[in-house]
Write a structure and sequence with these properties.
The protein is mainly alpha-helical. It has 7 helices and no strands. 21% of the residues are buried.
Length: 103
Amino acid sequence: MKTYGEMVRGRRKAKGWSLREAARRMGLHAGNLSKVERGLWKPPRSPKIVLRVQQGLDLERGSDIWDSLTLLAAIENGMLPGWVKENEDSLKDLATYIWKKRS
């Protein structure tokens, strides 16, 4: 699976946008976006910034790439996405998965 930064870079390049153009659309500094794309910085922790990135990339809410970026932003920052924390079955499934992987 690709990292958050790799997915953002791939989408940006697929759109034919320069780093500066993409950063402008997201309301970010191009240097900061570059660091995220290259894996020098973690993805944004703030859901508001993750949302700005997704919208800036013209992603459709609920699409696979939208959901993947949401998930990767949380996981790469050592957090669980809100939808996992809010769903008791998801938490149980995750706990079971982690427990089995330990063995």
